[in-house]
TrEMBL record, chain A:
UniProt record, GO biological process: ether lipid biosynthetic process; fatty acid metabolic process; phospholipid biosynthetic process; triglyceride biosynthetic process
The keyword Transit peptide appears for this protein: no
Protein name as annotated: Phospholipid/glycerol acyltransferase domain-containing protein
GO CC terms, sorted: mitochondrial membrane; peroxisomal membrane
Originating organism: Esox lucius (Northern pike)
Main location: membrane
Keywords: Acyltransferase, Membrane, Transferase
InterPro entries hit by this protein: GPAT/DHAPAT, GPAT/DHAPAT_C, GPAT/DHAPAT_LPLAT, Plipid/glycerol_acylTrfase
Recorded family membership: Belongs to the GPAT/DAPAT family.
GO MF annotation terms: glycerol-3-phosphate O-acyltransferase activity; glycerone-phosphate O-acyltransferase activity
SMART domains given in the database record: PlsC
Pathway: Phospholipid metabolism
From TrEMBL, chain B:
E.C. no: 2.5.1.26
Pathways per UniProt: Glycerolipid metabolism; ether lipid biosynthesis; Lipid metabolism
GO BP terms: ether lipid biosynthetic process
Residues annotated to bind FAD: 166-172, 248-251, 300-306
InterPro entries given in the database record: Alkyl-DHAP_Synthase, FAD-bd_oxidored_4_C, FAD-bd_PCMH, FAD-bd_PCMH-like_sf, FAD-bd_PCMH_sub1, FAD-bd_PCMH_sub2, FAD-linked_Oxase-like_C, Oxid_FAD_bind_N
Signal sequence segment: none
Broadest EC class assigned to this enzyme: transferase
MF (Gene Ontology): alkylglycerone-phosphate synthase activity; FAD binding
GO terms for cellular component: peroxisomal membrane
Complex formation: Homodimer.
Species this protein is from: Esox lucius (Northern pike)
Source lineage: Eukaryota, Metazoa, Chordata, Craniata, Vertebrata
Protein name: Alkylglycerone-phosphate synthase
Localisation: Peroxisome membrane
Residues flagged as site, Important for enzyme activity: 351
Length: 591, 590
């Protein structure tokens, strides 16, 4: 059964989370080939109308919705409907998946090999799998994983195959199509491809949305897509895109299905394959084009250790329960359902709200490694610090993070010194220990490179390290904004602090996952957490920092410092060089 | 006390003065007709009135126990009427005095008052059976004999500020007959049963003038004697009255040939606190502003009393034939009905029962008398399920009724069966069709059987555009199942639906739902919550608030949403003009 509760847990310490199982363990002890060819018989949706991938296409092309849009486009462009229909059919051909179990088995075999080399563990919460299995039978299901790596969707299908669950069809960016052979392989493992932007293209939108909705209505397979739209290069969740979410909700609004369940899935990597690639991309080195040869070159990553992956399948969220009292479905009664209409304001704000909540649920179940805590401390001590001090501070931060509800994977029964040293070892590309002092690796020794190169290398290290720190931001973001607000408000009056808090939330609305309209709730949550940890006290409408709270607040302030500096720097630049910026929008959230 | 001497018997009707003598006071229909499980645990239907009467129904027990998780060993018999528990009559002496002077009969006997205090909603019947009764019942009952009597009563009611609630057949399922508990005035139940004459028949124009208190079956029988019929056959026609049909916008099973009540009515005479309203001629259609008849049709007793109606009549059809079609699944059946509606060739009646109702129909099959019949039945079943590959848990049945001259009926029949064949439908014989329609009349008795064994049941209806029929049926059933589960109903409820009327632009869908209420603290409340949720679901899926049951008090809360603020304001302003003192104070609708 889907939970109706959203993000409402008062005390994050009380969050109940499932245990993990390592799925690689069994793979290491049995035949990969046998695994790839084993009997695969997933449970299916009870309302399933069985149909082949090809039948699906003709259903889409013959749908009332598409016919309506084809006529509309034909009237607008003067082109004959047949020609537009042909166009639609080409679009669909380019888009559609061709899910084949043999390809999936091929991937099951090769990925097992690769995973066993790359990763120590792939941990999955089996209770989440059971819940998903139930959900799949009851209602159409939409899988919404976080997106940090190219691995994500292969990994998802791999896990579902492992647990004998229905394989999803996955909305993927067109970029992959560039990879000749691989693109087709992905298609046969369930990917369907959509253009990155098709804003004004009515026909494209119609084909795409009808394709997704047809699969959903028929219960063809779970639908998987990334709310964040693209891989987050910073390990910070991206502001959700609501286009696809809107599409999968529509069949419910229009009564075509009883309910749709959204399953938030958090995929946490101890080390991301694309780690240094991302840092370079952020610094302006162009993203290498997806190509098969590029992939082959990337083989060298196979020789490295990427630690473990945690995949947490969250509680399925029922759209029906969410929409209760928020969306009046009667609104859809007065126009034939196949005629596309812009969502009403009410619907739009519901979808946006849901998108944010799902991303928060994803964030919430992200597993954080000790290294994430260490990276956060290191970034506030760029000149380096004593190993013993780092250990001490890491332990302190661990306590703070836990009281704020972080999902920490801190090894039990291991001395903390050992935990710290093994983290340092895994990330030796980023950090070095010399003479009992820990500091970031700052590239080649000075003198051998130009000062520009040295600066660039330093930036790569800092950004790579920041991408780990960013993983814990969701835990601290509200208290941190409050800390900054307390620091900057004209007085300690609650109202003034709130005003400042609210300003910061608005400013950071594209930087962090702060649901628009939740500011009051966020403020209360932040106050609650800081009061609970003994960092602040509220006395007669005043918010006062306690003595023992000083260190916490200074850490939280430090956490946002680089963001604030970045915004400040940027606005100075803009104000000083208004003419320099014409139509080109500057990079978003790069720190 | 009631002047018993004033009570006159009318011979033409089955309903004598105190109806409770032949009808149940706490259940549906005739006292002599009911389902029961006999000592052997076999179900039988008592009495002599129906085709099913006196028959043993061997499969009913299994079906009943398996469907509801109930046991025929757990019997719960209802108490008898406790007149002492009744709130004392709040009489208006001045009104009483004036009324006595008119000579119109009245009574304030407990059983007369209780009998007219309710309709047949589950909560009403349940309250009676639990011996709990009602917070408010009419203080007295009066029996006008003609239009002029009604005029007198309404005048007196206005003069003495007495609340009047018209009472026809008492078959309301919307709480329309319930007395508002907050009503402090004397409440008079105006029983129209004595106004039951056909005043004249006009064969040139094929219309008849009929008093509004006449009961459906009496009207049909009397007209039949002269070779005519109205063709208006709502499922409640054994007990419901002409005035009630007008007041609720009733719909008859054979509306495809004869039309619904609004199509049948040519002229209405209605007594309101403002005076009598009627049109000055009986032209078949008029363009004289909005049709004032439509203020009365569906007014649910809030504006006045309908006393006389001119109604279209037709010669009795020469030939009538039942039929049935089996479809592999409900989807195919709906598609077929849609096509039939599109080609405008619907027979007098066409109904599509879902699989649950099909199975239920089977459970009501009487004991087969000969081995041969059961052999044939077995063969039929074999043919459909094994040979044709229909899944017995998917298939569903359409029942048909054709009327007209013989040749045309046969032609029509062929046309419909040809369409059905295109949707995978197989003709399944006349018997199955006829059985479907007999069921309609006895099904209402089954609720009482359920109540005897801790099962509550109710039906409700809606109308919906064609393209939403399937989605609505699926979602409403699912919603009911889900709501029951969430509210602690232990055994999955029975949910079933049938498409019961077809129109050009949509269909009427009828739902049944029932569940075993053991373990629930307040079964009626649970039931009401579920029904409420089901109605929300209907509205969210493009269904209407009601197709023919009406609004009453049960569905008032959705009126604004259904007809908009302005629409509601229009109705209110009519009420304010016609009945400023709220004499017709049943508080239905608005």
């Amino acid at each position: 059964m889907a939970s109706t509760t959203l993000y409402s847990q008062r005390d994050p310490m009380l969050k109940k989370r499932d245990d993990f199982e390592d799925i690689l363990e069994e793979r290491r002890n049995s035949s990969d080939l046998k695994y790839a060819v084993r009997c695969y018989a997933p449970v299916l949706y009870k309302g399933l109308t069985p149909c082949k991938a090809n039948m699906l296409k003709s259903m889409v092309l013959q749908s009332d919705h598409l016919r309506y849009v084809i006529n509309q486009v034909s009237q607008e462009s003067g082109e004959a409907p047949d020609i537009i229909h042909e166009e639609a059919s080409v679009i669909l051909e380019e888009m559609a998946h061709r899910l084949k179990i043999s390809t999936v088995r091929f991937f099951a075999f090769t990925l097992t090999k690769a995973f066993k080399t790359l990763f120590q563990h792939i941990c999955v919460n089996e209770e989440g799998i059971h819940r998903l299995q139930q959900a799949i039978q009851e209602h159409p299901v939409v899988l919404l994983p976080s997106h940090r790596s190219y691995m994500d969707f292969l990994l998802m299908s791999y896990i579902l195959y492992t647990y004998d669950l229905a394989l999803p069809v996955i909305a993927a960016g067109m970029d992959f199509m560039g990879m000749k052979f691989i693109g087709e392989m992905l298609r046969m493992s369930g990917a369907f491809f959509i253009r990155r932007s098709f804003g004004g293209d009515k026909l494209y939108w119609a084909v795409f949305s009808e394709y997704v909705k047809t699969m959903l209505r028929n219960g063809f397979a779970p639908i998987e897509f990334f709310l964040e739209g693209t891989r987050s290069r910073t390990c910070k969740s991206l502001t959700p895109k609501i286009g696809l979410l809107n599409i999968v909700m529509e069949p419910f609004f229009k009564g075509e299905v009883f309910d749709v369940h959204l399953v938030p899935i958090s995929i946490s990597y101890e080390r991301i394959l694309e780690e240094s690639l991302y840092a370079r991309e952020l610094l302006g080195v162009p993203k290498p084009k997806e190509s098969t040869s590029g992939l082959l070159k990337a083989r060298r990553i196979l020789s490295e250790n990427y630690g473990s992956i945690h995949v947490y399948f969250g509680q399925p969220v029922s759209i029906r329960s969410l929409a209760q009292d928020k969306v009046n479905r009667c609104k859809y009664n007065l126009v034939p359902r196949h005629i596309p209409r812009k969502p009403t304001k009410e619907t739009q704000s519901f979808v946006t709200d849901t998108a944010y909540r799902i991303v928060r649920l994803q964030e919430d179940s992200m597993v954080l490694k000790p290294w994430v805590l260490m990276a956060s401390i290191l970034l506030q001590n760029l000149e380096g610090l004593e190993l013993s001090l780092l250990t001490e501070q890491t332990l302190w931060l661990r306590g703070l993070a836990q009281s704020c509800g972080a999902f920490l994977d801190w090894p039990d029964h291991t001395p903390s010194a050992k935990v710290v040293s093994s983290s340092l070892a895994l990330h030796r590309g980023l950090v070095c220990v010399s003479g009992g002092r820990v500091s970031l690796v700052l590239g080649e020794p000075q003198g051998l490179v130009t000062p520009e190169e040295a600066l660039f290398n330093r930036a790569v290290s800092v950004l790579s390290c920041a991408s780990y720190r960013n993983q814990i931001l969701h835990v601290f973001i509200r208290p941190a904004i409050l800390a900054v607000a307390i620091h900057n408000a004209a007085s300690s009056k609650k109202d003034e602090v709130f005003n400042c808090f609210s300003f910061l939330c608005k400013m950071f609305s594209d930087e962090f996952i702060l649901c628009p309209g939740d500011t009051v709730q966020d403020f209360e949550e932040a106050c609650y957490l800081l009061v609970k940890s003994g960092s602040v006290q509220t006395l007669q409408q005043n918010i006062v920092v306690t003595d023992r709270g000083q260190s916490t607040l200074s850490f939280l302030n430090g956490l946002l410092e680089s963001f604030l500096q970045g915004y400040q720097l940027f606005s100075t630049l803009v104000l000083g060089n208004l003419n320099m910026f014409s139509d080109k929008c500057p990079v978003e959230g790069t720190i | 006390s009631a002047p018993a001497s004033q009570k006159k018997k009318t011979s033409a009707t089955v309903h004598c003065f105190p109806r409770q003598e032949i009808m149940k006071w706490n259940g549906w229909g005739y006292s002599d007709s009911k389902f029961l499980f006999n000592k052997k645990g076999q179900a039988e239907f008592t009495g002599k009135r129906y085709r099913l009467s006196g028959m043993i129904l061997p499969s009913l027990q299994d079906w009943f126990e398996n469907t509801f998780g109930a046991s025929v060993k757990q019997h719960k018999s209802p108490p008898s009427l406790n007149a002492g528990a009744l709130p004392p009559a709040n009489l208006n002496e001045a009104f009483l005095q004036d009324l006595t002077a008119t000579g119109i009969p009245f009574s304030h006997e407990a059983d007369d008052r209780v009998f007219r205090a309710h309709g047949h909603c589950l909560h009403e019947i349940f309250a009676l059976r639990e011996g709990r009764g009602f917070q408010r019942v009419p203080d007295m009952v009066t029996w006008p004999n003609c239009h002029n009597d009604v005029v007198k009563i309404v005048e007196l009611a206005c003069k003495h500020n007495v609340c009047v609630i018209p009472y026809g057949g008492g078959t309301s399922v919307t709480g329309a007959l319930e007395c508002p508990p907050e009503e402090m005035r004397c409440i008079v139940s105006l029983d129209t049963s004595q106004m039951n004459r056909i005043l004249w028949i006009d064969e040139k124009n094929l219309v008849a003038r009929i008093e509004a208190g006449i009961i459906g079956q009496d009207l049909e029988r009397l007209l039949n004697e002269g070779g005519y019929c109205t063709g208006h056959e709502p499922d409640s026609m054994e007990f419901s009255s002409l005035g009630g049909w007008v007041a609720t916008r009733a719909s008859g099973m054979k509306k495809n040939v004869y039309g619904n009540i609004e199509d049948l009515v040519v002229h209405i005479k209605v007594v309101t606190p403002r005076g009598v309203m009627e049109k000055s001629c009986q032209g078949p259609r008029m363009s004289t502003g909005p049709d004032v008849h439509h203020f009365i049709l569906g007014s649910e007793g809030t504006l006045g009393v309908v006393t006389e109606v001119t109604m279209k009549i037709r010669p009795i059809p020469e030939y009538r034939k039942y039929g049935s079609v089996v479809f592999p699944n409900f989807e195919a059946g709906v598609a077929c009905l849609r096509e039939v509606a599109k080609q405008r060739c619907a027979p007098a009646s066409i109904r599509l029962m879902d699989n649950e109702q099909f199975q239920f129909g089977h459970a009501l099959k009487p004991q087969v008398s000969s081995i041969f019949t059961s052999f044939v039945e077995g063969l039929k079943k074999f043919y459909i399920t094994k040979f044709k590959g229909f899944d017995p848990h998917q298939l569903c049945v359409a029942t048909l009724l054709f009327e007209g001259d013989r040749e045309r009926v046969l032609q029509h029949e062929k046309q419909v069966y040809d369409i059905a064949a295109k949707f995978g439908g197989l003709a399944a014989g006349e018997d199955n069709g006829q059985r479907g329609y007999i069921l309609t009349f006895v099904i209402a008795y089954l609720r009482d059987l359920g109540l005897d064994y801790y099962v509550v049941a109710e039906s409700f209806e809606t109308s919906v555009p064609w393209d939403r029929v399937l989605d609505l049926c699926r979602n409403v059933k699912e919603r009911i199942i889900r709501e029951c589960k969430e509210r602690g109903v232990q055994f999955q409820p029975l949910t079933s639906c049938r498409v019961t009327q077809t129109y050009d632009a949509g269909a009427c869908v009828y739902f049944y739902f029932a569940f075993n209420y053991r373990g629930l603290a307040d079964p009626v409340h649970t039931y009401e919550q579920v029904e409420h949720a089901a109605r929300d679901e209907i509205l969210a899926n493009g269904g209407s608030l009601s197709h023919h049951h009406g609004v009453g008090k049960l569905r008032k809360e959705w009126m604004k949403e259904s007809i908009s603020d302005v629409g509601l304001g229009m109705l209110r302003s009519v009420k304010e003009y016609v009945d400023p003192d709220n004499i017709f104070g049943n508080r239905n609708l608005l």
